[in-house]
Amino acid sequence: MTISPVDFASLLCSRLCHDLLSPVGALNNGLELLADETDPAMRERCLELMNDSARTSANKLKFFRLAFGAAGGFGELVDSREAQTAIEGLLGDNKRLELHWLVEEPQLPKTAIKVLLNLGMIAGDALVRGGTLAIGGESHGEVTEIVLKAEGTRIVLDDELRRTLVDGADGREVTPRSAAAYLIHTLVAETGGSVQVSAPAENVLLFGATIRAG
C-alpha cells in the first residue's frame, strides 16, 4: 500500500492535534474557571494548573517540530542536544519514567534525529506503568546506529506499530496511531537501512535502526 504525501501529512497533523488536545483543553478550562473564581487560593491553584498545561503544550510543540518538521533548519546535521531537550520535554512529566540519554555524538544526521525521536515517543508510550528508557546513537563513517532499550513492569507495543516499524504499510492502512511508525520505516528504508524490534517479552523491549548516508 502506498500513501500520498498529502494524506500522510494529514495523519501526522491528526497525531499532533490528538496529543495537544488535552493540555490545550486544560488551559482553556483553567481560563474559564479563573474568570469566575474569587477565592485567592483557588485562583493561585488555577494559575499553577494553567502554567503546567502551557509548559506541556510548549514541550510537545518543540518535540513535534523536530520529530515531524524541518528539524534544525535545512542542514544535513542536527545538534544532538536539541533532540535530548525535545525528548526530555516530551517525557519529563511522566514521573514514573526514568530517561537515560547515551548519545555522545555532538551532531547526528537529520534523518537519524527524526528516527530517534519518534522511536523514543513510541518506546515511552509502551512503558504503560513507567520504567527506564535508554537511548543511544552513534555514527561510524556513513552508517548511524540507533538503539533504545525500554524496561518496565508492563510493556505494551501494539502489533500494528510493530509491523509498521519493520515492514511499513505492507498493504495495511496507515492510521494516525501508526503514522510515527510509518515515518520511521520510510525514512530508514529510503537510506537502504533497516528497523529492528525485539520479540515480545515481559519486562524488556529493544528497538534498533541502521541508517545509511548517501
Fill in the keyword field for this structure.
214 residues, alpha+beta, two-stranded antiparallel ribbon, 20% strand, globular
Q: What would you say this structure looks like, in words?
A:
This protein is α+β, with helices and mostly antiparallel strands. The protein contains six helices and seven strands, in the order ααβαββαββααββ. The protein has a five-stranded mixed β-sheet with strand order 2-4-5-7-6. A hairpin with a 6-residue loop joins strand 6 and strand 7 (204-212). Helix 3 runs parallel beside helix 4 (110-126) and helix 5 (159-167) runs parallel beside helix 6 (179-190). The model has no long low-confidence stretch (mean pLDDT 88).
Which parts are unreliable, with pLDDT below 50 for 5 consecutive residues or more? none
Strand fraction: 15-25%
- As laid out across the biggest beta sheet, the strand order is 2-4-5-7-6
Order of helices and strands: HHEHEEHEEHHEE
Largest beta-sheet characterization: 5 strands, mixed
Sequence-ordered SSE layout with sheet pairings:
Elements: H1 5-36, H2 40-67, E1 77-79, H3 80-91, E2 97-101, E3 107-109, H4 110-126, E4 131-140, E5 143-151, H5 159-167, H6 179-190, E6 194-197, E7 204-212
Parallel strand pairs: 2-4
Antiparallel strand pairs: 1-3, 4-5, 5-7, 6-7
Helix pairs in contact: 1-2, 2-3, 3-4, 4-6, 5-6
